[in-house]
Every structure is written in structure tokens, then in C-alpha cells.
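Worked Example 4.2. Read the sequence first, then its C-alpha cells.
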Amino acid sequence: MEVAQKTWDPQRAAFVKGGGTVWDGMAYDPELNLLYVGTGNGAPYDQRKRSPAGGDNLYLSSILAINPDTGRLVWHYQTTPGDIWDFTAVQKMIQADLVINGRQRKVLMQAPKNGFFYVLDRATGELLSAKNYSYVNWASHVDMKTGRPAVTKQGDYYTGPKLLYPSWSGAHSWQPMAFNPKTNLVYIPVIDIPNFWVDMPNSGGKLKFVNGFFTTAGITPDGAFDAKTLKPLFGTLPDLKQIKAPRPGALVREVLRAWDPVKQKVVWEQETSNGYRSYDGGVLTTAGNLVFQGRGDGDFVVYAADTGKQLKRINTGSTIMAAPMTYSVNGTQYVAVQTGYGGTAIVTPISPKSAAATRVNENRILVFKLDGDEVPKPPLRNDEPFPSPPKSDATPEQIKSGEIKFNQHCAQCHVFSPNVTPDLRRISEGVHQNFKEIVLRGQRAFMGMGRFDDVLTENDADEIHAYLISEQANAYNLEHKQEEKLKQRASKH
């Protein structure tokens, strides 16, 4: 990708064609000797920049069946032709033998980001069914003759910001789903949330591109959404109070959903969050009619696989994003799961509903058995006060310019809240003194903070630094005002 320049040129960079990466789901059928590979979204998202002539951009957001001996493509199915919504098809694929229309079929099942559940003949790639397993408004249905989604007017965000279901996080992401051959149900950790897709150059805001998104952006209207704060950068968006969910339930919700892949319908569901995304974990199902799922709020929950009845709920104090696994030793069955907030969640602040918002975010492996001991919880968070900011002689114009550049290049990883990456309003005196060495010349590359002198100039770094000092001063002053109010209240009593 041609971005190694002293001055970022979004128009030049945006025309580079890319995407279709393979970063998650694969499956292998030893009988058919076929390797199934899921491919990712287009990059950049805006197809007008990626592919001005349009078209399907074949093999983006697709399932490929490959002969592993020769590397040749045997068949393919594209779930989202010409993808402009980050609707990857890399999610886990499950092989099963199902009776469909009275005939036993060897099938491949996937619930990709775009919200439709696909059942394909895994020998030929024939589309057997495609029904939305979550609320979808970017497309009305999948045409069973052509296999193509029927895109709606709501799906076209080039004509203005659109509230789209599902969000760019997908109706289902990397967290594994599970299939139980006894119930013939698939258990999907569904992300039933929307986002506003914004065509930034035409939105009226000052932000024209974001590194990683380029000229489009997806903004989730969760409890942290503030239209007034976003307006200078992204243009006018409706206030959160004005946004109504177009389907029953809260605007933002996560759901564990039991899906019948033959009848193409929901059999049962359990809502796992409300109002905020908390990044719930993947799913395990067992022959003992059980379904296990860890949740963002720290609960580890066991359900009856056939009915969805909650059988057990254990609070661990740790965010759980991974899928559980099970094994047996000397006749005793164990269920284990890795805990910890991170991964793809770093691009957003830690949800106030997440266990990581109140307790230290420890990465642990928890192992459960019947009649086991109580789970030890991590200590409560005790964030240090905001440090006093250094003096700055930056002008308001420089600070505003720094805000735009921060959002373009830095905000994908660094957010102003507790997270797995540093909140840059809390940087120390030593970091302030070495800011340009860190940002431009990779002084902390060994810690994962690479150098940015290929896209940022010395002046860019100075303006970003000025913006961060301003934000640190705001946070520091607000914190001290709150402390003074608490002292005054205490003195009255």
C-alpha cells in the first residue's frame, strides 16, 4: 500500500485496491479433500475509491473451496458482492449432515458479519438456504436463484449517513458459534447493534479520512454516543434520544441465539446485554444438552441446549471473549475458558457494562468442574489521578488541527477511557518530553508503538501533542473540581 510518504495523501492511498484477507475461519473435509477458506472485506471500504468501475470485486467476502493438493479453486460463494460495509465472510464454518427437503445433504454453515445464515452444499457450493439470523436493513433478502443480497436504499450511505444493521462489527464476528448434532441447532453469539455509516468527504465535517477506514466511518450509537461532540468531525448526526430502534428491543443489544439451520428460524434466545456492547464470548455446546458462554460482564453462563433455560451463572469478575472448551481427566470433566478484555475491542472504550470497567483486566485461564471452588476475582480498578499537564503555548487553531490528526491516525487504538492501550490524557512528564521520539522515530517500538514518520510530519506530531495536552488539562481540571465539590459536601456534614 503506497502510504509511506511525508505528507498523507488520502486520495492517492484510497485508490489502492485491497482487502479479501484470510484472518479467521477455515475448515477441512477429509472425505471431499476440500479446504474451506473465508475471505475478508474490501479495503478501503469505499468502493468508489477501491474500484471506480464498480463490480462484485470477486472473492472479497467469500467462501472458497480449495483443493489443498493443487491449490486450485473448486467452487466459491460470495456472500457480499462489492462489499462496502466491512461484512467479512471469515467467521467460523461448521460442517454437518442435515436432512433438507427430505434429502440428506453434506453442508457447510456460516453466520458471517452481514447478518444472513448460509447453508451450502459443501461438495458443490450450491446455496441451500440464506435467511437473516439477526435484524438486517442493508438488504431485504438473499435471492435464492442468484445467491445475491437485495441491497436496500438504507444500505446506500453515499447519499447521506445511514443507520445500518448490522454494524461493521457484524451480526456475528470472530467469537465462535457452535453446532449440536443432537438438537440440530446452531448457537450464535449475535451482535444485534447498528452503526451510522458516514461518507466523510461529503458529510460536512472536518474529518475527511481515518487511517484504517479511509474515507468512510462506522459510528456506533451506544451509551457513549454524543452527536454534539462528533459533529465538528463527522457532520450532523441525530441525537441519541432521537434514534429509535427499527426492531423490538434496545437500540444496542447482544443475544445468544439458538438457530435451526433447516427451518431457518430462531428456536430460543437469551439477551446478554442492554444499551452498550460488552463483547460477549464464543460458545461451546456438549452432548449433555448444555451450552456454555462467557460474557462481557464477567458472568459464565450454562444453558439447556434444547430450551435455552439458564441452569447456572457464575460471576468471574473478568471479561470473557473467548469460547470455552471441554476435556476429561481420569473420568472428571472440566470446562476451561480464557478471560480478558482486548483483541478487536481496543478500538472502543471499555463498556461500563464490562467486568474490565470495574476490575483489573487480568488475562487468566479459568477451569470449572462440578462442585468446584469459588472463582477468585481480580482486584477492583484504582485508576491513578490525571497528572498535571505541562504548559503549552499552542493556539486554538493548532489544537483543533491536532484533534483532527489524532482522530485520523491515533484514535483507532487510543481512546479517552480505560482500555488495553494507554489513555493519552494520562501520559507522564517523561513521555511528554520524548513525544516526538516515540511517535515519529519508534522509541517505544519494542512495546508495540511503531514509528509514524512515514505518514506524520514534525508539525503533525506537535499539533497532536498540543491537542493531547489540552485534553489532559481538561480532564485534570474537571477531576479537581469534582474533588473540591466532594470536600465541600463532606465539610457540611
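Now turn to a second chain, presented in exactly the same format:
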Amino acid sequence: MIPTPSRTSLALCLCLTLLTSCMLGPDFQRPEAKVSAQWLGQAPTAPEAAPTTAHNLAQWWTAFNDPQLTSLVERSIEANLDLRLAQNRIRQARAALGIAGADLGPTVDTAASYRRSRTPSSGTGGESVTGNFYRMGFDAGWEIDLFGGIRRGVEAAGADLDAAEESRSDLLVSLSAEVAANYLNLRSLQQRLAIARENLRAQEHTAELTNQRFKVGFASKLDVVRAEALAATTAGQIPLFEAQIRQTIYSLGLLLGSEPATLLAELTPDAPLPVALATVPPGLPSELLLRRPDIRRAEAQIHAATARIGVAKADLFPKFTIAGALGLQNTTLSSTLNRASTAWSLGPSLNWPLFDMGRSRANLELKKAVQEEELLAYEQTVLNALREVESALIASTKEEEHRQAMIRAVAANHTAVELATSLYTAGQNDFLAVLDAQRSLYASEDALAQSSRTVSSNLVALFKALGGGWPTEKDAPRNGSGS
């Protein structure tokens, strides 16, 4: 037979276990998003390109095979100030989770006090009593989480931590894409500057030849002025390109958390515009829900809002606390240290706000409305993600068609310049045809350079839309359970 005190203690423990297993409020359920079975657009493909795998999607910039681009992205991840701020927010969320978890256990405080007081006599005409009081010992308290309010708070704090980590991952995606976009723009501007200078040399040469023909009577003054005007117009583009190049380098410096001029020596020398050496299979739309960190963050925010409904609901019910104290107390310091001065207390307490003008119920309705808001925000985030992928897919496909057309246009304009110059020299055509051909050649070459940059930039946008740029081995956000 189990002794009576032992059976009583066992029964009490079982009751507490059953009571503390109760958690009010709804359990978090991962939201279901309605997505299509496949994408409408098509990813750009190339016969010689290798498909992008899940592993190198996390480091998609390596598909451009440009060591300088890879270096810039990796250095930005190490030094970017926004990313460091996001990491600090993760530390804050982790500390908040620790604070919330600490409420599940008991608290023990130690204290010592001395008090001297004067008490009037209870009798008429008696003398007052003056005395000392010494106390030292421990105070303990433990709120029994009968309705799961504290555990729901821990669950909410855990979801907040998930959201903070997903915010950092989302920033990684945006940061890598922004660094790459600025780098591609820089190389494109340098290419356009080189094209402008090359066309300027050709136009200045034409203007010089026209001036010589004018001096011997084979050209008019109008031809000379037109040739000089065309060269001057092209020359006016050069300082604009130079300014944009410098500004782009400054932007990259900021992304790397450094002073604007830090990268001037490294990036001022010209380099070719990088071209991706990998195709991008977009996968299924449903995979996007697990890969994009902004969607995962929205899901974590729903989780936190759902758990806080349980916290608010638990506030409608009584709170039970077990409090105890153990210490020494007496009227003299020497007597306080005696064993006879030992004092202790132990007992439960109940706190149940019966009337608070509807504050607790209004707070519960507030938390429910917040959860509904987060659900709507999640749906909006998913729709925006699908739009970004579809837009990037169609842009990549159509821009490649545009680039191929511009390649043909450049070749045709080169031929037109040669023919117009030959006919003009032979006296079979006027000079305006030469100027128009040179103007068209410069415009088509510049448009081709911009289109080449756009093709690469659209690929960067597609990588970003697919959630590339961060390691995907992280588990899905926590799921709470309760009743």
C-alpha cells in the first residue's frame, strides 16, 4: 500500500499535470494558398547552359561566372549595415523568447531588511514603544499556467523569432539582387561609354573629311555643320555616362557598408558585361511557398498572431500562484541568527479580475482582428510573389527576342554606314544619308548594350522572384499545439 501522504502528493501532481496541459485559443494551422499547377511563362533556355539546381539557387550569382560580382555579393553579406541591423533584431527576438520562457518556471528572490519603528501605547497615558525589526530570507513564487497563457506567449515569441530570421533571409535575397543589378548596370554603362567614344571618333573623322572636301569645293558648308553637330551631340553623352558610372560605384560602396569612393580603384577599369551560364527552371508554383522568405515570414506572423489569441483568452480566466517564504526575523540582530527566529510561509493564491469594463474581451477581439489581418497580408504576399515570377519569366523571354533583333539591326546599320559613305564619296548620294546611317548605327549599338544588360537584369529579377539568394536548409516555422 502507498502511504496516504504519498498518494495525496501523487494525486496532486496528476491534477496539476492535467490542468497545465490545457491551452486556450486556436492552434496554428499553416494557411493554404491557392496557386496554379504551372507557370504561364517560360524560362529562357540555352543549349549550352547547365540547369540551376536547388543548391546553387542559394548562390545564383555564381551562374554569371564573374569573380568580381561574386566577391561583391559575398562582401556585402558580411558588411551590409541593413543586414547587420536584421541580425541584431534576431538577437532581440531570441532574448524576448528567453524572457517569455522564463515565466514558465518559479522565481526565487533573496532579501534582507532592517526597520526601526515607534508604536504608541494602547493604554491611556502609557508610553510609546520603540523597537527594531530584522529580517532576512528567501521569497518564492510560481504562477501555475493552468490555461496556457504563458505557453501561448512562448509560442508567440518563438514565431516572432522565426519572423525575424525570415526577415534577414528576405534581406539577403534583396541585397544580393541589388548588388548584382548595380554591378550589371555599371558594366553596361562602361560598355555604352566605350560605344559612344568609338562612334565619336568615327563621327569626328567624318566631320574632318567633310571639312577637307568643303575646302576643295566637293562639300557644302551645311554638310560640315551637320557633321560637327552630330559629333557634338555624341560627345555630350560621354560626361553623362561618366557621371552615372561614378554614381553606380558609389551605390555599390554603400551596399558594402563602406564609404562611397572605396570601390573606385577596383571598379573603374572596364570589364565585359557578364552573361549567365545557367538556365533557370522555375519549378512548381507551390514550391515558392517554402522557398521565398517573405512568404515564410508572413506565415510566422500568422503563427504569432494566432498564439496571442490564446494569451488574450487566458486573461479571461483566473490565475493561480503558489507563493512561499523562508527566513529569519527578530527584534535584535543577535537573536535573528538563532534557529528559533526561523519563519516560513507557503500557500496558493487566486487572482481573477471580475470587472474591468470589458478590457479583456476587447483585447481578445483585437488579437482576433490582428490574426485576420495577417492572413490577408499572407494572401497578398503570395499573390505578389506569383506576379513577380510570372513577370520575370515573360520579361526574360521577350527581352531575349528584343536583343536578337537589335543584333540584326546593328549588323544592318554597319552595312548602311559603309554603303552611304561609299555612295557619298562617289558623288551618288547626299551627305544627309551618311549622317542618318551613323546616327542609326550609334542608336542601335547603344540599344543593343542596354538590351544585353536588361537580359541579365531580368535573370537577376527571376532569381530574386524565385527566392534565390539564401540557404534553404532551414526548417519550416514552429507549429504550436493546444486545445
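Notes for the reader: The beta strands are 50-51, 107-119, 129-144, 278-279, 319-330, 342-351. The domain at 28-102+150-318+370-465 is CATH 1.20.1600.10 (Outer membrane efflux proteins (OEP)).
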